[in-house]
């Protein structure tokens, strides 16, 4: 149980584990039933790290952090339950108040020293993660790691089972925790399966190509991979490193995510030398916001883009147009995800996730925003994942990329050639 210390190369020490849950007991026999879309996401875990300065967090104690979590989990107590299976084999959550695992640690660096590291994937060491299983009844769905830096600053790292809700649900929940820590009243609408079915906007599309069926994993919910995956994360300027790749429009609108996805897609295509056609997956916030505001569940847009031309030779403009025509596949995923099959979503095809619309820096502690936020996913398939989100400076973006180790350095070399990262 010292995974974070071992992976942090001695930078994280004095690991201590406890449990935190809701302040009020849930009514006996209460359950939560995941939808087909929820179950399709069960091999994936969302990760986020919020780093606060010593000025903001020096007086934020373990007790203070946990008390705000009591308030949060009173609203969504089912997230502190445990999975079980129906006689049919379908998983469901017993709302038995077993709690969330809470991890405390200490870092030998200051916040300034930590943030001085150019590859922000070092923040992976600030997230304690264990998959669900092999004993479902004993596996927490959320891990919270509280790491105190030498200067008094603080990191709060979360590992969140994607089966419970999408990344927008995770960030919304953390923003509410921050409000609760300041004494504000919070409210989360009760999650309901009513009106959760997605309308099929593409009736001619039968099987979603954005996901991949895998051999049954049983009760250990881990993505099966034959390749060792690596992480890399970096910041870049919209004005200096993104906009030069795209002609200015008359109205001044710049589709930053699409441009960045197009540039990175081209770089990866050059390394892979893939034959056409090629399909990628786009995950982003639902523009129609099908779920009730603030509800905790999966409602993210999962769509596919298929091209029948060599991506490496295409223009960024052409790829941006294709991304704009992505096909929503949630209806098909929801339909087949409710069975006893197991799927990979992130990384089944090369996947781009747009978190640009998330208010990551709204989670204020003692009135101050985090110095840095890190986002990624655990359990990514072999085709890889690229996550794009806004940096602390609104004119910058953060890219967190997960690819196979054998590809990573060659892709970074392509990034240097096109100016995404320094040579």
UniProtKB/TrEMBL annotation:
Molecular function GO terms recorded: acyltransferase activity, transferring groups other than amino-acyl groups
Keyword Cell wall biogenesis/degradation (UniProt): yes
Pfam family, one: Transferase
Transmembrane segments: none
UniProt entry keywords in alphabetical sequence: Cell wall biogenesis/degradation
InterPro entries: CAT-like_dom_sf (IPR023213), Plant_Fungal_Acyltransferase (IPR050317)
Biological processes annotated in GO: cell wall organization; very long-chain fatty acid biosynthetic process
Family: Belongs to the plant acyltransferase family.
Name of this chain's protein: Uncharacterized protein
Taxonomic source organism: Arabis nemorensis
């Amino acid at each position: 149980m010292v995974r974070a210390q071992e992976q942090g190369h001695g930078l994280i020490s004095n690991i201590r584990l406890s449990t935190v849950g809701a302040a009020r007991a849930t009514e006996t026999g209460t359950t939560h039933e995941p939808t087909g879309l929820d179950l399709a996401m069960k091999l994936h875990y969302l990760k986020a790290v919020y780093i606060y300065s010593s000025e903001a967090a020096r007086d934020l104690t373990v007790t203070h952090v946990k008390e705000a979590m009591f308030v949060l989990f009173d609203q969504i107590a089912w997230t502190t339950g445990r999975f079980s299976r129906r006689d049919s084999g379908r998983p469901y959550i017993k709302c038995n108040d077993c709690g969330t695992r809470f991890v405390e640690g200490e870092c030998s660096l200051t916040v300034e020293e930590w943030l001085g590291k150019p590859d922000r994937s070092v923040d992976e060491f600030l997230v304690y993660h264990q998959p669900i299983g092999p004993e479902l009844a004993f596996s927490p769905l959320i891990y919270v790691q509280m790491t105190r830096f030498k200067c008094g600053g603080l990191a709060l790292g979360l590992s969140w089972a994607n089966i419970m809700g999408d990344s927008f649900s995770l960030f919304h929940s953390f923003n509410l925790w921050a409000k609760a820590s300041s004494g504000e009243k919070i409210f989360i609408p009760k999650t309901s399966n009513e009106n959760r079915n997605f309308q099929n906007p593409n009736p001619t599309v039968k099987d979603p190509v954005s996901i991949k069926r895998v051999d049954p994993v049983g009760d250990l919910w881990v993505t099966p991979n034959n390749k060792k995956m690596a992480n890399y994360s970096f910041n870049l300027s919209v004005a200096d490193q993104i906009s030069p790749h795209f002609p200015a429009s008359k109205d001044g609108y710049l589709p930053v995510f699409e441009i960045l996805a197009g540039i990175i897609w081209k770089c990866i295509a050059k390394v892979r030398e893939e034959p056409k056609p090629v399909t990628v997956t786009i995950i982003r916030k639902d523009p129609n916001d099908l779920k009730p505001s603030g509800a905790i569940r999966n409602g993210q847009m999962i769509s596919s883009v298929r091209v029948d031309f060599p991506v490496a030779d295409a223009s960024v403009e052409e790829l941006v147009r294709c991304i704009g025509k992505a096909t929503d596949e949630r209806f098909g995923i929801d339909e087949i995800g409710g069975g006893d099959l197991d799927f990979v979503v992130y990384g089944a095809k090369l996947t781009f996730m747009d978190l640009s619309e998330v208010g990551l820096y709204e989670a204020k502690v003692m009135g101050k925003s985090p110095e840095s936020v890190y986002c990624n996913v655990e359990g990514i398939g072999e085709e890889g994942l690229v996550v794009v989100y806004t940096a602390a400076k609104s004119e910058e973006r953060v890219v967190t990329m997960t690819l196979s180790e054998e590809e990573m350095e060659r892709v970074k070399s392509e990034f240097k050639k096109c100016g995404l990262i320094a040579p």
